[in-house]
Every structure is written in C-alpha cells, then in structure tokens.
UniProtKB/TrEMBL annotation:
Protein name: DRC11 protein
Species assigned in the record: Rhadina sibilatrix
Region (Disordered): 344-366, 451-481
Pfam families to which the protein is assigned, alphabetical: AAA, IQ
Gene: Iqca1
PROSITE patterns found in the cross-reference section: IQ
Ranges for domain ATPase AAA-type core: 567-683
An example molecular function term from Gene Ontology annotations: ATP hydrolysis activity
Composition-biased stretches (Basic residues): 462-476
Amino acid sequence: FPTSTYIKMWADTQRELDTMLQREREEFLQPEEDREKAMKMLATAYVQYLGIFRNLEEAHDHLIHQQKRAAVRQALDGVMGRILEIKKEMVALEKSECHSLDGILMDLKRVPEAIEIPIPKYFIKENLRILQEREEYLHEILLNAGLLEQEPVRAMTLEEAIKVIQVAERARQGRARAAFMKRIYLEEKRQSKKEEQGTGRNPDDAATCIQKVWRGYSQRKKTEKLREEEMVFLGMNSAEMINGTGSLPPDVEAMRCLKKANVLKGKVQERKELSFRQELRQTEGPHIKETLQDQITQCFLECRHVTGRFPDYPPEKSGGSKAIFVEKHPEQVAEELAAKKEAEKMESEKYGKGQGKPKAKEPEKAGKQVVDLGWKMGPSNFLSMLEEGSSQYQVFWENRDNRSDFLQDHDPELIKGGERKGVEEEIRVQVDEVMQEKLLNIKKALDGETGLQGKAKGSEKGKKKKDQKKTQKTQKRGNDNLMMSLACRTVDSLYQELAEEGLLIKVQNVNLSDYIGYYDYLRNIPPETGAQPMPSIPEVRQLVTLYGILPLGSHTVHVNAPLVKSLLLAGPAGVGKKMLVHAICTETGANLFNLTVSNLAGKYPGREGLMMMLHMILKVGKELQPSVVWIRDTEKIYTKGKGASKPQEEMNFKRLAKLLPQFLKALKPKDRVLLVGTTSRPFDANVGPFCKAYQKIIVIPKPGYLTRFGKYFTLWKQYILQSGGALSKLLNLNCLAQVSDGFTQRHIVDVVQTVLTELRLLQMDRKPLRTAEFVIPLARHDPVYKEEEEAFQ
C-alpha cells in the first residue's frame, strides 16, 4: 500500500484514541459499586485499546518519515502500557487471568482473533545489527568451546539395516540392468545407421524428425512459462526466484525498499540533528546562558529580600536550577525548602529512635475507605503520555498537507525544537556549576556562611554509620573478594565465561505465532466448582505477550507499567513450555540464561559459588538487556520434605531457591530481566516458597480438537507439511484429530517424524500417506489423562 494509506490509518486511529481518552475521563474517574458493570467497562476498553494498538503498530512499521514514526512510537508505547494497566485491574476484579470476552466481542461486532495481541516489529528492527553481532560472537564462543549442539547419531535396528542393504542391492541391480540395455540400444543404433548410409535417408522422414524435435522444444518452453506465471500468481517461489534471475514478489520487494528507505532517512536526519545542535550552540547558546544566569540571580535576590538570607542551591539530584524555575512566588519556594529540611530532620530523629514502624498502619485505613466507596480505577502512568502525544499530533500533524510531501523528508523546525531542549539542558548544567560557586562566594562575603560545616558534621556521622554497617557485613559475609573480582571484570569476559559454562545458551529461532492453537468456544466451567478455567492456547499466547514480550521489548513500558519480574509456565509434559521460552527471546532479542537443575550440576558449588554465578548473570543481563533467566523443571529446587542426609547437588539447588528472592529484589524497573520457570509437576514442590518466587503463573493446556484439526493450519497438517509430507484423499485428518485426543504437541511431532523418514518421503509419489500409518506410532505414547489435567486446575 502507498504511504498515504498508513498516514490515513494513523489519523483514524488517533481520533479513536482521543475518543477513548475522553471516555476514560468520564467513566473511570467515578467509583463503581457494581463489580460486573466495572468489569464490563474494563473489558470493553481492553478490546478497543487492542484494536488501536494493532493499527498503530502497522502504521509505525510502514511509515518512512522518521519524525512521524517517533510520534506514532510515543502513542504505541503509551497504548501498550495502558493495556497492561487495564489487564491488572481486570485480574484484580475477577481473581483470574482468563476472562470471558464473548459478550463484549459480540457487542463490538468483532471476531475472537481481534483480541490477539500483536508484537511490535521495532523490538528487533531497531536493534537488528547489535543482535546479529551478538549472535555471531556467541556462535564463535560456543564453536571454540565445542558446545554447539550436534545431531545425535541414532543406532539402527536390525530391520532398518536389512532395508538399507536391500535398497542398495536393488539399486545396484537396476544400474547394471540399465547399463546392459544401453549397450543393446547403442548396438541397434549403429546397425540402423549402417543401413541408412547404404540406402540413403528419405527427405520426408528427415523433415518429420525435425518437426517432432522442434514442436517438443517449443511446447516445453510454453509449458515452463505458464508454470512460472502460475507460481507468481499463487505467490510461491518461481524458477526465476530460485535461480536468482527474476524479481521478488511485490510485497517482499516493497518491504525491502521500505527498509532501505528507513535506514537512509534515519541517517539523513541524524546528520541534520548534529548540524542543528552545533548551530544552536553557536547562535543561541550565549543568549540562553546569559538568560539563565539572570533568572537564577534574580530568584536568589528575591528570596534574600523575603527571608533575610540566601537559599541553598538545589542539588543535581533534585534537578538543579530546574527546581527554581517553577511558577511560584519566592516566598513559596523558601517555605517549601524550609519544610523539606524540617521533614528530613524529623525523619532522621524518628529513625534514630526506632519510631518509624507505626507508619505502616495508615495506608490500611485508607485502603478500607476506598473499598467502601466501591471500585475505582487506579492511577495511570501512561494517560499523561497519551494525552501529550495526542496534543502534539493535533499541533504538528493533524492539519499537515501530506500530498506535497512526496519524499517524506524531515521537518527542520521540529528538529530544532527537539535539539533546543537538549542544548538548553547542556547549558543549564554548565550554568549550575558556575552559579553554585558564585552563590557560595556571596554567602561567605555577605552572610559569613560556608554551607559546609553542617554538611561536614552530617557526613562524618553518616560515614561512621556506614563504616559500622560495612564492618558488620564483612563479618557476616566472606565473599567480598569474589564480588570485588566481578566488579573488576568486563562484561565481555563474564559473557564468555557464562557461555563456556553452558549457562548462556543459543536461542532457537521460534516465533510466538508458531505456537498454533484456536479458541475453545465450548469451554464452560460452573462457578460453584471453585476451579479456575483452563486457558486456551490463544489465551496463553496473550498472557505470554502481556507479561513477557511487551515489557521486555519496550523500555518505556517496562519502567512505567506494573512490574512483573518472574513468570511460571506450568503444564503437562510436551505442551510447548520450552518453545514459549525461546519465543519470548526471539520476539524481543533477549539473551537466554539456562539455570536448569541438570545444567548446574558440578558448576559453581557452595553458597559463594551460587552467589557469584547469580551476580555474573545479573551484571551481564542488566548490561545486555533484555535478558531471560530460565529454570527448567523448577519444582526440583522447591522439593518437599527435610532431611540431613541429602546429596551435595540437592543441597546446592536448595541454596539456589533461597537466593532467588534476593536475585529478584535486585531487579529494578529499569532492568529488563525476566525470570521464567517451567514445570510439568508443580504439585511436587513446596507451595509456599514456590508461589512466592513467581508473580504470574500461566497454566498451559493440551491441544483441543480445533487445534488438532481446524479450518486452516492445524497441528497435524502443519507438522506433516513441515516434514515434507503431502496430503492425500487417503489421509483423514479428522480421524487423526479424534484419535489423538489427550495427546500433546510433542506426541504429534514424534509420530510425524517416526512415519516420515527419508525412505518414506521418496516413496510419496507412488505410495500416498494413509491414516493407519500414524495410528500405530501414536498408540505407543501415553496421553494426558483427566486426573493429571484436573490437578493443574
């Protein structure tokens, strides 16, 4: 589609977003006593925001104009965060991660696929070069260490060996027979030539022979051309594409051109930004500096006139001179500074006397009052971002004539406005240093104040307390040398060590869309049973996207959205938990650290070793974020029971379970690091610490009938085609879907790989696939029985 299509899509979506913001101001600010009505309001907003999210993502992916992309990006991140906030409120109301949205979809006239959560492509595109270099570096490390996974050599059975020998012998006999027949044919041909030379060739026979050869050649050319046209029409790879002599399909060619244009436009805009910044420094820099100094001096003089003394200069942590430039009277500024000082003194005195504990009771009373009033939407960190983006769109982009902007060039005035803020910030920091020294000199000259004595005394007291704490810590912990050694090491050396130890592994290239599944329209669990409904596979994809992919992919969303540090994927063996972990890393470009029990055996023994390993992972994960820390079979480190006679390895895993809360506590909102655990037997773990370690638990079901056999791509059809098989009338997929009820995705994959061997693929043309070929291997597997499935609920 042309660029104007996506500009129009952006405009329509922005108007829809403005309507949603207006509706939130009217509805969500008022308390609601009826929980069902509140849930309906939230669910409606959730579905509508998902539609806005999908349109914004598509527009952002196809726009070339870099400044328009930045404007769309701001709205896109805001909508992602708002969706997470609404999801949190829905979970708090229903006490469940799965919601029945059928009625909302019918009211809005939308299909179930409308609530599929798209994954923004800029997660990978904007960091593609860095990710490729990191992948090459990891491949080189694993190759040098000999840790690359090789295909396992499978031993042949006696029957398979006999078949291989038979095939080779029959092929030898066929080649010998063909050579013998070729000699006979050549001998007959020589005899016929001798006879023709003696009698002479008839001209009519020669003309007939030439016509036969020419007509065959011309018809073959026509057939080949028709085949190529048909392949192009169907959107499949043609012979020209394979040989590299033809052109790409239109959509692929358009995406390649769009990618090149985005790179070129970005480079041009970066050069312009540098030139504009230098120009602003030279032309407006002196004037900005002089104005700032005059304003700061005037504010200090007014404060001294009101209070009788010069105020203290605001520290850089509180914004420096930014704290001065507020639209308030100097008296108000002086009062606020004095109030802050008194509050700090009171807090220090209370903490010194040990009277800081009763403060924890106050929020409980406030919480009870809020519950009595009814449900009310919590505060949002993204509504201000969305409103700011909406106002910027109305000012800069809404009434712009895009027809004249054929080349989609940047707007110099917008660049100047953005760079002017950066230049002002640079100059403000320089002015703060000069004015702070100037203020100290004035205080010494006029007031006789140094402003350093109190600080020196306080700093001496603070140092004494800190020294006491440090000595206590050194007495309790004996791992200071290890931590110091980690602090001195570079991230590259830690990265290499983790890869060589097998803790940093290569990510399998799997997308979340490859996890096939359809909605279970017949799911209906009576509410009186008390059991949580088992989510369908599309709901699993949504939850993984909400809690894993979106926060890891966007720094803005991770910092401001409800923080999820840990995620547990629980389900029967073979339902695709490992695939989902690799999909999270693939969609976000994250590093994958494998802390599986079997992978840690013999590595970093003892408490000090485990602490050093976790510190290494934490340092590398934060520096090269996003990162995923994966613990497979996580129930093994939370096993029930106590006993003194335990193996050393099991004791090491118990220590890991105790250190995980400290690891999670060290993760801040700015750190895009996610702990993901997978388990097929969660009921074997000690429930208390096991559930405390994971904030979100996603139960993964076995595939339903629609997933095994649906209208489009389903498990049986997808796996057979991926393995090189061909569908035929003798292969009844409906029958296979009925027979495979209770079996998982891994069972179906194993059955397809068992049947479709190399020899069977060679026989595909003359011997089509039959249903019975898959039934016998399927019977060798044990399905997921009803008792095990109910245990997960």
